[in-house]
């Protein structure tokens, strides 16, 4: 075994006493879950590869290998690493041996070969015209349907290449990263306090979760203690974001099956909450509120109570709407058995969030790696195992109700005091943090020195979950794709960054 | 089942916000406004330093120092309020939506404490003009050129029962070939540049292009990234700009109607 091989070492030999990280397939229950793989540069600008695993007992376990030479792929053992290693290959030019598919992921035909933004200077990158080879599916009656990047709706861009026989999808190939904005590179050199604004622009509808994950990573690096009032208000913001997102998703599912009345109800409830949110915090999506150390400003308790009342009303209306939707026979017909993600696929691809919980994977960062006010909060984590559109819809309905209860619980017992703790930013810093965003586990890892960032990596739940989509759509009819896609509710921008 | 749905519909009050209450409304956007009388050269300098984009910048008009606020770059983060000693406040109203780029910047003379922004060619809409916009049809094709999805969330909200854009005969259409207006969000990424041009070409003439959000107007917080080409006008011609990060539905509506008015009300 190559010296540069991560994992694959049984417990004991590593010295840290961790569990075996990589076992043969089939024994996946005992494998630690891969969280992310990313690169960085050492102080001598030597390339490094970091591997982060969730090893249970509220611990993330990180290991690093030097990558001056080729690094052996872990994809044969952990398929969930496939996109991460392709990204490493693109961004750092790290040679990965044994990877089944090292086509460019992040960069398209226009990007010249051999330019790696995380290592090279990229001020004036010439436009190239390279070739991209899609997988081909052959056989009698197989046709290709190419969709995107521009889609017929108010949605983000991405390309889908379906291979179909009649209406049935044999294979879906994803081609994303149309919204790649070089975000991780933008963090480099940024002031630590300004980084929260970049984090907020990674995925616009989950901006508060990103701001919190970023801020917590800084706080962990500086060993800063966030004041109780700030962490309570953060919890309210995070749960509100989840509630709004889940309401919007259920409405979107109704839109995609032509149940427009229910869809309009959902948009009405969502808008009611966004307006209540603007009344409370001055911003509809809680932008510009979270900063490393706490919050930029305090929110009045009176206004938070007002928000909590609005949440209570919205949650009641949503529960009523959800009951009507779930009892509608045509909805049951469309939702049930559509887009199944089996527990095996979910585990192999290490999916996270509601998609994982709908496929029997009991995983929630709020409970498993508690942070901030979640350490003392009481809440359940719903899990079901059918893995179809209906399962994902039901998980969201249950979580919305739980989020609403959490908001009311915390709002009724808000701590008093300041909302911003001072940060000690001098010297070297290194920290990471995870947050359960509405789409699942969001993980930030950063390094900096003297108040400026040198590296910030974002593991977004969408990047993790997109590769499971082709498995969910296979054997379904192509007309169900919008519905199945919506039931995942993945962010393109969060994935592409 | 359908009767239960209908019963609920009948129980709901009408939520539609009158257009007069929407135009110029910017609640929840935190766009900044400057109080001229409180502005000093020292405060102006601090605003330039604290701004994470280049929305605030110093300039000179003749030999007099002046402060420039370009809404195209502003992401509404509110960080300029703290060091401003009251010179910057959250704008109670915001009407810089749907204007040409030249009209998106404001200027203040720091010696005389007065705003010296050149007047806009068209004043704000009056009631009669609003009415004249009804009864026409406009088909909009929304195009994401690389946005974070924040603008999309707010654009989708335009069709909800509060804003009901359809009351103006404005529809979102699925194909650029059916569109009169392209509503483009996001900084144009390298990977989307070609698709943006192709989509623009597919819209039949005469066509309108509106750039949405700080990113669409200027590249916003992503300006200068190696993976981003710039704002929408770096790739295709733009008729009107709607600032904000993201612009609220009311700001979007103000901007769309403003662009429409410039085209139809002469």
How would you describe the overall organization of this protein?
The complex is a heterodimer of chains A (497) and B (266). With 497 residues, chain A is of the alpha+beta class. Chain A has three domains: 1-133, no CATH class; 142-175, no CATH class; 183-496, Cytochrome-c3 Hydrogenase, chain B, CATH 1.10.645.10. Chain A is 37% helix and 16% strand. Chain A is built from 16 helices and 13 strands. Chain A has helices at residues 82-92, 183-187, 195-200, 207-222, 228-256, 260-281, 301-327, 329-335, 343-348, 353-357, 365-368, 389-411, 461-465, 469-473, 481-488, 492-496, and strands at residues 33-41, 47-54, 60-66, 71-72, 96-97, 142-147, 159-165, 168-175, 290-291, 294-295, 428-437, 440-449, 452-459. In chain A, helix 5 (228-256) packs antiparallel against helix 12 (389-411). Chain B is an alpha/beta fold. Chain B has eight helices and 13 strands. In chain B, the strands form four sheets. Chain B has a five-stranded parallel sheet, with helices on both faces. Chain B has a four-stranded antiparallel sheet with strand order 2-3-5-6, covered by helices on one side. The longest helix of chain B is centred in the C-terminal third of the chain and has 16 residues, at 249-264. Chain B starts with a helix and ends with a helix. Classes of the chains: A alpha+beta (497), B alpha/beta (266). At the A-B interface, helix 2, helix 6, helix 7 and helix 16 of A face helix 1, strand 7, helix 5 and helix 6 of B.
């Amino acid at each position: 075994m190559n010296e540069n091989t991560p994992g694959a070492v049984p417990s004991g030999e590593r010295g840290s006493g961790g569990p075996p990280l990589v076992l043969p397939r089939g024994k996946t229950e005992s494998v630690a879950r891969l969280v992310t793989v990313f690169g960085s540069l050492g102080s001598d600008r030597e390339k490094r590869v970091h591997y982060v695993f969730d090893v249970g007992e509220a611990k993330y376990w990180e290991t690093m290998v030097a990558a001056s030479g080729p690094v052996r792929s872990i994809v044969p053992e952990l398929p969930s690493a496939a996109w991460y290693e392709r990204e490493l290959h693109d961004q750092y030019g790290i040679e990965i041996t044994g990877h089944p598919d090292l086509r460019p992921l992040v960069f398209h035909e226009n990007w010249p070969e051999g330019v790696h933004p995380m290592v090279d200077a990229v001020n004036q990158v010439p436009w190239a015209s390279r070739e991209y080879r899609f997988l081909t599916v052959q056989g009698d009656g197989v046709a290709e349907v190419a969709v995107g990047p521009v889609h017929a709706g108010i949605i983000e861009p991405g390309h889908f290449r379906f291979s179909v026989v009649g209406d049935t999808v044999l294979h879906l190939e994803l081609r994303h990263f149309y919204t790649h904005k070089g975000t991780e590179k933008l963090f480099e050199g940024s002031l630590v306090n300004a980084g929260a604004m970049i984090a907020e622009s990674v995925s616009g509808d989950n901006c508060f979760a990103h701001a919190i994950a970023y801020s917590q990573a800084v706080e962990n690096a500086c060993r800063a203690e966030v004041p109780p009032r700030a962490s309570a208000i953060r919890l309210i913001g995070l749960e509100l974001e989840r509630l709004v997102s889940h309401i919007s998703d259920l409405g979107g599912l109704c839109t995609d099956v032509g149940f427009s009345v229910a869809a309009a109800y959902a948009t009405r409830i969502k808008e009611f909450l966004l307006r209540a949110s603007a009344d409370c915090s001055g911003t509809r999506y809680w932008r510009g509120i979270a900063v490393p150390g706490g919050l930029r400003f305090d929110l009045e308790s009176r206004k938070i109570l007002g928000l909590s009342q609005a949440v209570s009303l919205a949650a009641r209306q949503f529960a009523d709407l959800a009951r009507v939707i779930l009892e509608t026979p045509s909805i049951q017909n469309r939702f049930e058995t559509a887009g199944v993600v089996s527990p095996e696929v979910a585990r192999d691809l290490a999916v996270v969030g509601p998609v994982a919980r709908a496929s029997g994977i009991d995983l929630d960062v709020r409970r498993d790696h508690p942070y901030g006010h979640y350490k003392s909060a009481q809440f359940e984590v719903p899990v079901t195992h059918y893995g179809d559109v209906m399962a994902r819809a039901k998980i969201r309905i249950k979580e919305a109700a739980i989020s609403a209860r959490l908001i009311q619980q915390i709002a009724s017992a808000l701590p008093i005091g300041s909302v911003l703790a001072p940060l000690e930013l001098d010297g070297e810093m290194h920290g990471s943090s995870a947050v359960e965003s509405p789409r699942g586990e969001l993980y930030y890892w950063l390094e900096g020195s003297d108040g400026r960032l040198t590296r910030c990596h974002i593991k977004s739940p969408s990047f993790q979950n997109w590769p499971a989509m082709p498995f969910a759509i296979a054997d379904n009819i192509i007309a169900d794709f919008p519905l199945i896609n919506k039931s995942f509710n993945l962010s393109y921008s969060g994935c592409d960054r | 089942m359908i009767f239960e749905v209908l019963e609920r519909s009948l129980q709901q009050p009408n939520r539609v916000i009158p257009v007069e209450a929407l135009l110029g409304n910017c609640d929840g956007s935190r766009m900044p406004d400057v109080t001229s009388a409180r502005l000093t050269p020292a405060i102006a300098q601090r605003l330039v330093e604290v701004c994470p984009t280049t929305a605030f910048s110093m300039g000179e008009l003749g030999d007099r120092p002046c402060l420039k606020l370009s809404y195209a770059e502003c992401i509404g983060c509110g960080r300029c309020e703290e060091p401003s000693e009251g010179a910057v406040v959250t704008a109670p109203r915001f009407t810089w939506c749907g204007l040409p780029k030249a009209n998106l910047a404001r200027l203040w003379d720091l010696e005389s404490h007065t705003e010296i922004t050149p007047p806009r060619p068209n004043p704000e809409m009056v009631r009669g003009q609003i009415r004249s916009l009804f009864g026409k049809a406009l088909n909009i094709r929304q195009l994401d050129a690389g946005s974070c999805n924040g603008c999309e969330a707010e654009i989708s909200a335009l069709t909800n029962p509060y804003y009901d854009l359809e009351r103006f005969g404005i529809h979102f259409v699925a194909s650029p070939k059916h569109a009169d207006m392209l509503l483009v969000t996001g900084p144009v990424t390298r990977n989307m540049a070609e698709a943006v041009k192709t989509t623009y070409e597919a819209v039949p003439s005469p066509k309108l292009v509106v750039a949405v959000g700080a990113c669409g107007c200027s590249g916003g917080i992503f300006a200068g990234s190696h993976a981003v080409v710039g704002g929408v006008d770096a790739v295709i011609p733009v008729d009107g700009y709607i600032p904000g990060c993201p612009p609220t539905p009311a700001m979007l509506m103000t901007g769309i109607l403003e662009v429409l008015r410039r085209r139809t009300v002469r």
